[in-house]
Give the backbone structure.
Amino acid sequence: MHDENALKQAKKLVAAAKKISALTGAGISVDSGIPDFRSEGGIWERFDPHEYGTYDAFLNDPSKFWTMGRELAKVMLKAKPNPAHIALAKLEQTGKLLGVITQNIDNLHQVAGNSNVIELHGSYLRAHCMECKTEYVGEEVHQRVADGEIPPRCEKCGGVLKSEAVLFGEPMPEDPMARAVEICNDTDLMLVIGTSLSVYPAAFLPQLAKNSGAKVILINLEGANRDDVADIILMGKASDLVPRLFGISE
Ligand code: NAD
């Protein structure tokens, strides 16, 4: 349960801020039906991400990864943005939002209407050929996987396709991280929403914003690993708290 006084203080910070940023994690999409790694039930109990979602596992046996990918895509393709995603899209319309930095790969911020979304860990809607690097964008690859093509292969050269969702142990794309760091240096208020702050280097970004003078509001169902970085902690569901923080009633 969050504390109403903390919410009141957080609203004051939002009202005073001119350059707001958001760092989001799996928790913001839980109310859209996509489980985070901690939730009981769902796909992560059948597919341990540390076993199926590592870069080494993919290189050893891409079929194993794509078997999980098929289940993940089923969940992601039918998910819709929830009130937290929509509230961030409305915040962008006010001109106060520098951007949304996300660890999610589910594309829901874009569907909600945010235009500056920095995907630190890639997107499940992009894939590329491991051999000739041809890019595949959209749902087509997932359709082929759903139809039994595991692993999916490049139509040009027959190479195995790799999803552009960043796997454990895989180097992160450099450009999104550089853009995220720019935002951290510029923002005066960072909202950290639905992340356990356990995956680095993303987990370091709130500290970076704080070092540059920003206030940090953490919104999470439970404590995160870096609670110490927060000026205000709001505990509860993002789909409830984020719209209330911006004074948006549904
Ligand atoms: P995480 O699973 O480690 O942590 C999620 C956090 O969200 C937890 O602290 C949990 O208490 C909180 N949470 C759960 N439900 C919530 C709700 N309704 N409202 C507010 N908070 C809620 O996720 P992470 O920190 O993002 O890191 C895990 C990695 O796995 C990241 O790379 C992430 O992108 C990836 N992942 C992505 C998705 C997705 O794209 N939707 C889903 C699962 C995992």
